[in-house]
Amino acid sequence: MNDQCFALAEGLVSSSYIRQAQQARRTREAMVKSLLAQRRLPPHGWDDATLRLFLHELALMDSNTFPGNVGVGEREARVVCPLVAQRHFGFGHGVGRSGDIAEVQPKAAGSSLLYKLANALAADALRLAGAKEAREALVLPLATGMSVTMTLLALKAMRPHAKYVLWPRIDQKSCLKAIDAMGAIPVVIDNLLDGDELRTDVDAVRAKLAELGADAVLCLLSTTSCFAPRGVDKLLDLSRLAAEAGVPHVVNNAYGVQCAACMKAIGAASRHGRLDAFIQSTDKNFLVPVGGAIVATCSAEFGPPLLAQVSATYPGRASLSPILDLFATLLHLGASGWTALLARRAAFLPTFRERLAAVAAAHGERLLHTPHNSISMAVSLGSGGGGRPLTSMGASLWVRLISGCRICAPSPHPKKVAGIEFVNYGAHHHAYPCAYFTVACALGITEKDATLFLKRLDKTLTEWKRQGEPARLPAEQGAAAEGHAEEEEIA
Amino acid sequence: MNDQCFALAEGLVSSSYIRQAQQARRTREAMVKSLLAQRRLPPHGWDDATLRLFLHELALMDSNTFPGNVGVGEREARVVCPLVAQRHFGFGHGVGRSGDIAEVQPKAAGSSLLYKLANALAADALRLAGAKEAREALVLPLATGMSVTMTLLALKAMRPHAKYVLWPRIDQKSCLKAIDAMGAIPVVIDNLLDGDELRTDVDAVRAKLAELGADAVLCLLSTTSCFAPRGVDKLLDLSRLAAEAGVPHVVNNAYGVQCAACMKAIGAASRHGRLDAFIQSTDKNFLVPVGGAIVATCSAEFGPPLLAQVSATYPGRASLSPILDLFATLLHLGASGWTALLARRAAFLPTFRERLAAVAAAHGERLLHTPHNSISMAVSLGSGGGGRPLTSMGASLWVRLISGCRICAPSPHPKKVAGIEFVNYGAHHHAYPCAYFTVACALGITEKDATLFLKRLDKTLTEWKRQGEPARLPAEQGAAAEGHAEEEEIA
Amino acid sequence: MNDQCFALAEGLVSSSYIRQAQQARRTREAMVKSLLAQRRLPPHGWDDATLRLFLHELALMDSNTFPGNVGVGEREARVVCPLVAQRHFGFGHGVGRSGDIAEVQPKAAGSSLLYKLANALAADALRLAGAKEAREALVLPLATGMSVTMTLLALKAMRPHAKYVLWPRIDQKSCLKAIDAMGAIPVVIDNLLDGDELRTDVDAVRAKLAELGADAVLCLLSTTSCFAPRGVDKLLDLSRLAAEAGVPHVVNNAYGVQCAACMKAIGAASRHGRLDAFIQSTDKNFLVPVGGAIVATCSAEFGPPLLAQVSATYPGRASLSPILDLFATLLHLGASGWTALLARRAAFLPTFRERLAAVAAAHGERLLHTPHNSISMAVSLGSGGGGRPLTSMGASLWVRLISGCRICAPSPHPKKVAGIEFVNYGAHHHAYPCAYFTVACALGITEKDATLFLKRLDKTLTEWKRQGEPARLPAEQGAAAEGHAEEEEIA
Amino acid sequence: MNDQCFALAEGLVSSSYIRQAQQARRTREAMVKSLLAQRRLPPHGWDDATLRLFLHELALMDSNTFPGNVGVGEREARVVCPLVAQRHFGFGHGVGRSGDIAEVQPKAAGSSLLYKLANALAADALRLAGAKEAREALVLPLATGMSVTMTLLALKAMRPHAKYVLWPRIDQKSCLKAIDAMGAIPVVIDNLLDGDELRTDVDAVRAKLAELGADAVLCLLSTTSCFAPRGVDKLLDLSRLAAEAGVPHVVNNAYGVQCAACMKAIGAASRHGRLDAFIQSTDKNFLVPVGGAIVATCSAEFGPPLLAQVSATYPGRASLSPILDLFATLLHLGASGWTALLARRAAFLPTFRERLAAVAAAHGERLLHTPHNSISMAVSLGSGGGGRPLTSMGASLWVRLISGCRICAPSPHPKKVAGIEFVNYGAHHHAYPCAYFTVACALGITEKDATLFLKRLDKTLTEWKRQGEPARLPAEQGAAAEGHAEEEEIA
Known about the structure:
Number of strands of chain A: 16
Distance between the termini of chain A: 52 Å
Strand content of chain A: 5-15%
Largest sheet of chain A: 7 strands, mixed
Largest interface: A-B, 113 and 112 residues
Helix content of chain A: 40-55%
Oligomer: homotetramer
């Protein structure tokens, strides 16, 4: 509907009503214009109608949707199943070209435009989340682990002779596998126990760096968000080390965007030392389905060439889908919605922590003191269970429809991950002093969720301490659920 | 609606009608049951309603959709934007776990089940397309290039000391970049000119293999589908070589599924030699949006361990989206729809070829003779254009809403791709004797498309031969479009 | 996306691609512009993307969707359930105002515009279907029966003292109830038997008109589409009668739009006599869900005032939903799609008729000769069934998933409908000489449907003639299904 | 997915996860079962996934969706436009049969079941809203005005000789036209001025009833919800009058469901007198798009026969769409959501009223005292506007994106509606002492809406009192908007 169409509409419906509608249309066009000009989150989230309209309009900029277009190439974004076509709004070409994932596609101006905007909005969202210095972001249609792999491959292209990745231990498989997958050699740096909490052994990193020689080291790979009782890595110290040694430093910020402390630490470390890039999942931080990650940087010196290399390393095209999800979500939230979402989590954390501590105390257990972890909380798990393995408490919770509560029990059996043997895998430490379970105060959690959880936890602990069986768990289900719980332990 | 619900419904609506409905429900349940039991394409495509219902039911098997579920983990598949939630039917957990992309997720039984079924259906579809021997398939939510990279990384894990990839030249960037991205060294084997057609120089491959030593060679990487005048690689010869030398052999079958000749060649080469895996895009072969590829094998000996390694190499989770697209499309088509789609293309090819040859002849040009390419066709491009670069003819077609027609003009400037210099890049040969343009008879093309294309081509060639300018192309647009055409030349 | 937005987009994506997209956008705008200017079916159906975009844009013209709008009225088109909001594209205000269903709503310029266009497109579609003289159409969100009632109420407002509706018998309850509902007195005119076919007794109508006096007669209400062996009413004769007597003449053209003979008869009768309005269902003629009808006219003299009165008689607002369905369907089809749909049915009719006759003959039955019915066909039903009621054959077909086949058996019991007793109700005649079943060659039927039907019919007749029971019909289901069939008989 | 399917799924995904999913499925089935057994609002609203699944399952109970079904009738619910098919979830048959809108359709068990449930849920929702005595409800796919017409037509069938409708004046066109449309004679009973408020003149009704004679009176038609300064009619007095005289009493409860006072009054009047039926819109009371109304009754004696007659009067089929909207909305809300929605409005009313009074006072105006209207509020409008018509203030608000604010200015010109002349139409009284504007505290209004409204109102009144022009309203727009405002005045 352009102005001519509105003029013609006045032949059918009174001018004054048509003009009011035209005025509304102009307001919407101004929203789009502002987005294209500013490339920042809109101050307020877009209404669903405007959002859908804009996605439609972008999709209609791709050649496969042009009226009268005829495709005689080998890839013409034909979609044969209507249900599939519809869920993609008509988009079909994906993103990227042979040369570069960020390159514009001639046949797909709309997809390309969406991708450029998504990258810009992602950078803005990271700034609003606390990393004020974020300069550039590249949304990849790959989850975090694979995005770490891609970033390491890009570093490898830039430092072909380096082969070691210095990596403060974090017992989360994806990260270690991300190193292993691309062929580098992970060098595990054990954590130090500081009270209840596990922290980076900066001296050990320094020593290992000296031992291997900076040129042999592909990068330091540190971690922010993690399961308690591990705390965020000492980014500032590591960045200073990296700067001194001239070694790249990459941060696995998996779900750290939701935590202002992590984001500020990244910003500060980037300013005062060397932090080439930080990588975060889109699903956990922006509440979209699994499938994307953002490689971002605050460093004017090291960031842009690395991101360009990541982009250029990507061979061929890729799915637009996770990018579209993030893009739509950011426009839906707007700056105010996004910061409010973050603020709600931050505001709820102290309450949740206190209430969890109270339930723990009521059962003779203790909330572990982990001041450098603002997302995950751990509660000691002592006696109980009547001889059943600790992990079966996880099964009891699962049967009560609690997902995501993770039991961590000391294990005498070493576990091999990516060819490396770990003692007490899952605890980030070969000899963590007690068993515990973890709970996250993650983005999007509601007070109602927490209340229900604490109620069910209380019930479960009561049973557990009594050494009784969970109420409605028949024998064979229990066994199965235990199996699950053991797997969950290291998920 | 279970039987109790139907019984209750009889209290509101006459039993005979309710029973008829119940009967229809049973028919649908039998369709699902058969799918779960057979794990093959249904004989006929499912109607949209059954398909949607099944996707809904699968999504409701994931814990994030359970009524009463409370998530206290760091990843609970919360989706904040309704538009995003809806396009994923409620799925949010992606696929894979830290350990393995094919591993079942405790929180996501539905997503996991969908993925297992998608892999089984993909294998079946490959069999129906001509590779009767296909044993196993792994759908990756990565496009072809990146899937080649993953496969090579898996091989690297299995053959850590091998570093060369022997690669008959194909001037398509993604493939070469897929090798480069993972750090192996591509060894280019030039093609032989056989009449108009370019074919594999098997002797050169053999010689290079001997020169480098089998242990140093990560794999042979051959190609089926490609732009004419290159033909499909001599898979049988290469597979025999690979078998003799004990070297893996991977086939880039990018859009070759649609061509029975390619699929049969893969099957035969797998039987008579060594062909570890073949990789194909989901978008070009199954008409879904860009974003997925299938790594498959016909080899009982070499396939399963390689696919398991690819699966285990993938670090962390991944998007379900491209898998969902393929799954829905295969159920939508069914065996009869899928084979009919393939048959239509095959049946149309001779007609399209003849009509293209006729248009070419009418303008003094010639359809190049490329009997080993059943998808792409090339037409010589001699005089014309009044001194303008040949590629500007592509721009003229683009302005006429023809996408995918690719002009290939000999170029004196070598081009560097992934660090290797190529003379006459885009032509698969350093000295291809003439300029030409290519056209594909790709899956999903209709007779109406072809007719419109030939009409517009005829018009464009008439102008071109007259050395006139294209009708409505103002100067500055011409320049831009030329730029585009040049890029398109090597896309 | 206006031109400024496109210009800004050029800062992110190469101008030449953006301009191509802009060109495509202009093409779409031209389609909309042409629709608004011509108010006729577009020559070709719109693609799904353009159609959705346009509906979105119309919905965004309603004030409830305006960014920043605040509603303080009692009706502000708030929609609380997202699923509901979405299926209406944001439309919420319905159509009409207190004064008139066709009146423009100040708060809903988009809905109002859509309604005006829907009326115009409906008139055009009627012209293309054969009533070339159609001048005006009013789409009502009421099915046919209720639309007849509204039309009669409008006539009543114009002729307050008339109370009789002269009505050639058609055994379809809705029509008679439509008269009864609004309080007029139906005067039944029995049909004449002409060979197998039942036709209008024009003399009886004339006589009755004379008897009652023109001023006492609200209108003649004739029928086109009906179950064989009744034929279309003799519209021309009735229209001449109406013209002579100065009595309104309304045609119930329920599903007659799909039949060119009916439409031409309406046109001719309008030219040569008096035919004030004809009324047709949207669902049967345009393949949308039940819920709408079109009141239309070819008469310059009598039509416009009647339609205006119908419109003004409607008290208050009404659902937009059936209007939206018709509107979207007509744009989806376009003139070429619409006429092709009609042509397919017309072309298939002779084949279907022949094949049905052949099956009938094979079982010793006969296709009744009803040359004035081009939609419904009737086949005699003689011996068989082993003493079971004839209608149980309908149940056998229903169990075989045949819907819509209607058994008509002579019945000694008179049936009362709207207070009037009918002998042999369902047969349009008090003494139709044989039992029969009817089958329709209705719009949208496919050759595959017919083939399956004839196969199942053949099987059923074989069993029936053998006096055997249907194969898989357990006793109690049979009873229930019979019950259904009896109801179906007069549906 | 029945149990066999789940068992088969265990062959692909670990049993424990599948069983958890099966458990979730059972929870959902229990929700459906409970709905079918209880036929009341579920205690809590259903999640979107369960709701969609259930609608899908219902749609799949209609024969047009059966796999293998072949239709040879004239109406087979074929839907040709995919966009249309999808918005109806596959439903196509509408509701009703020739005989009765509430009758079950053999071809459409799902639609029929949905309709039965919708009627039951509607009755329950009315009870929860305050009319605890509600016994029965019939949802009609007709808006309020037309539903009043249908109800009067039903009464007419039951009392063929009655022709007058006694109707306390309410200046809302639809209601009067609803009487006129069906041919009865409205007898206007003027309101009494009681302070600021207009109330029913019960004595005048009694006198008129005596004058006309009970047998000549079709019914009393009273009104609850209306624009202030009119209050709700004195239902109890009128019901007692009706009981005494043996005359039916119908209440136009257009948007009164949202007001507990109206609902309780209906309940009480039904208990202590005669109140045959009350009619309410679905859009205003349940926040769905315009298109439906509910005819309900609390009377065991008079209600059921009347509702049966309404149902039987409806000739033929009708749209399912407005029924589906209500059904989905009620399941979405559940009892807790529904009562919370009502409670929010009720709780907000006093605040809104106070704040409106304060703004009025600040500009020298006054909130009229209308204690018997709990939805609409009126504010006096004295000096201002610099000689421009009072209604132009409405235009100023409209331009500021305020919809629904209605200006009512005394007018010397009588206005004819449905053939009756009214002095000062729009004010419910021939000589209301002042001009005013009305504002509604309607269901779904938010505090944010009210704040924005009051701010813009304050600004508008400031300008108005200054006699200045509205800021951005150019001359010609002003004129147009004034035109609109005048219409709005009586909308």
